[in-house]
Amino acid sequence: MSTPRFLVTQEIPEPGPSILREAGEVDVRHGMSAAELEGAVTSGDYDVVLAQVSDRFDAPLLARARIRGIANYAVGYNNVDVPAAAEHGIAVGNTPDVLDDATANIAMLLFLGAARRAHEASEYLRGGHFTGLRPDLLVGQDVTGATLGIAGMGRIGKAVARRALGFGMRVLFTQRPPHDREVTREELGDLADHVTQLPWDELVRESDYLSLHVPLTESTTHLVDADVLHRMKSTAVLVNTARGPVVDEKALVRALRDGEIFAAGLDVFENEPAVEPELLELPNAFLLPHVGSAEAGTRAGMARMAAENAVAMARGEQPPYPVQP
Ligand code: 8YV
Predict the structure, then answer these.
(1) Least crowded by CB within 10 Å, which of 48, 281, 287, 291?
(2) Does the beta carbon of 73 sit less than 6 angstroms from any atom of ligand 1?
(3) Which of 8, 11, 73 to mutate for ligand 1's pocket (most ligand atoms within 8 Å of CB)?
(4) How far apart are CA 19 and CA 98, in angstroms?
(5) What residue ranges are annotated as transmembrane (predicted)?
């Protein structure tokens, strides 16, 4: 067998590079345009691409691709047309489980930051406006005793539920909005006695905090649109650590501006890395640049899994972490 050749589209942390170098030749080509990625993938120069979620592999590209596999450095894989990849014998892998806690942690940070006006408070202080305590200074929303609605009770949704229970919140969820299916007690495991499943419409109405943990698919694109935002409580906080297009960003800007909801905490954006300019101006939007999994140990774990996937794919073996659509 010839030496495997890996294309890495962004530098990843150890042990990723060591695992790849031990198995073959590694080419790190940071910042490739879509045309450059297409050229590389169709050139026959590489066996496997270790990819980011910003690298798009659609059906026309996959039809012309001369690679054995795509090892996504992410749990999400909406950047790959998985059925088209399967049709052309291209394996696809991801990095599940390892980033659940980190992503749940960032969801909590967004909740608290948006509810307690952390961004505004920090700006206020740094702007030299803090001249003394005031009872009306930067009053936010209550967290303890409030109701959290979780859209998507998968691994990350469950990790958020456990944290929210620790904060004394009531936890409701819809498993697979907008069209739910009933979840068994076995599936809920340790959470079975502590969380309640509701239809999506009711979840929207009941939630003081609505946190999104669904994959991006056709049915979840603009799951949170103008109509949903309108039906949320005016005191509600929306949190998105999933994928930007799950929320209609323009409608969200209007809802935040017009006080239809209290605040939003967002780690992902509809047209990443671009962000609706108006969103950047709104004090009640607490925004982070897609750092959900950015904890050192988590990223090392993701790097190991993606590299192990890539090596197995290059050898024509079943990857240890194949995507499970
Ligand atoms: C990013 C993510 O991939 O895992 C996912 O689906 O969205 C993130 O973890 C990460 O920021 C690496 O670039």
Answers:
(1) 281
(2) yes
(3) 73
(4) 18
(5) none
Give me the residues paired with residue 210 across strands: 149, 238
What are the structural domain ranges in the chain?
5-98+297-314, 100-287
What pLDDT sits at residue 243?
A: 98
- State residue 1's pLDDT score: 63
Q: What one-letter code names the amino acid at 25?
A: E
Longest Cα pair distance anywhere in the chain, in angstroms? 72
Contacts of 278 (CB under 8 A, 6+ apart): 253, 257
At the fourth CATH level, the homologous superfamily of domain 100-287 is NAD(P)-binding Rossmann-like Domain (3.40.50.720)
* 244, pLDDT greater than 80: yes
Ligand 1 within 6 A of CB of 10: no
Give the span between the Cα atoms of 56 and 149, in whole angstroms.
31
Residue 317 CA to residue 319 CA, distance in Å, equals 6
Active site residues: 243, 272, 290
Q: Please indicate whether the domains covering 5-98+297-314 and 100-287 agree at the CATH topology level.
A: yes
Residue 84, SS3 per DSSP: helix
The whole-number pLDDT of residue 2 equals 87
pLDDT at 12: 98
Rounded to 5 degrees, what are φ and ψ at 249? -65, -35
Q: What is the pLDDT of residues 162-216, one digit of tens each?
A: 999 999 999 999 999 998 889 999 999 999 999 999 999 999 999 999 999 999 9
pTM: 0.96
Residue 85 pLDDT grade (very low, low, confident, very high; cuts 50, 70, 90): very high
Is residue 183 within 8 A of residue 209, CB to CB? The reply is: no
Percent of the chain predicted with pLDDT > 90: 98
Name the nearest CA neighbour of 156 among 109, 197, 72, 96: 96
C-alpha torsion 151→154→160→161, nearest 10: 80
